[in-house]
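Quick start: read one record
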Amino acid sequence: MAGAIWAALAGIGFGIFQALNRRAGREWGDAYRATFILLLVSAVILITASVLTEDVSLLFSASLITYLNFGLAGFIHFFLGWTLISISQVRVGAARTGALVGTAPLFAAVVGIVFFDEFLNLPVFLGIAIVIAGVYLVSMARNKGAPRAGQPTGSWRDSVFGLGTAVCFAGSAVFIRAGLAALASPLLGVTIGMVISTGAYGVALLFRSAPAERGQLLRATLVFQVLAGVFVGMSTWMRWIALDLAPVAVVLSLGRLNVPVVLIVAPLLVGRQYEQVTPRIWLGALLTIVGSLLLILY
């Protein structure tokens, strides 16, 4: 029961994170510096969690290949995945992005078949079909009225960024499994990946020219961006607690709570003129949830 509660809190937290990240991105518009703040705040939270709850001496005996596996997992999941989610929110909005990222179990099923010799059965085929139908509805939805400044275009081509996030979230599992085979501490593993990704992102930003930002606007937006980092960092921690207390299927299933949360919270926080959640988007999101649950459970 405790594990299910932690998993539900993590799912809700991820949904609030996406809404806060979209609120910051609406005015800031710089997905790269926004992602760096998310990584930096999350790294601090996970380092604190590791020191308080884990045996950090295990890090001194871990092999270089273990660090490499967790580093690659972090690069794919956080460096690439979180960058794509920030870009997707600017392109298609938080609501559509939340539904598209919810397709991660679809790509996880593909990863399982290719890398782990897992098999397909009828419920899995059905789940894949339902997820694809949901993605189609979300991707083809259109904003009503004339476009506003800061309003996503909703072009189906821009859906590739949200789907790319889902691919990253699923693909990182290959290196996570390899890392955990040598260091059986998921929290230490995700912390290693987060810290390496944060350092790499900071170095990459040194070679990127700063955009012409308005100082006052940046200061106002920074609060939302830091809050987004706090929510995603805490949610990541809670997800690992849940994985230690409950079956993986339960944790992943309750993690789908992030989709309805972002559909409800984003329009309230960002503004309905910027986040138009139509019945078509709700239906598409519902289909991705149902299809994902079939993939997770079977």
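Residues 2-207+214-297 form one domain.
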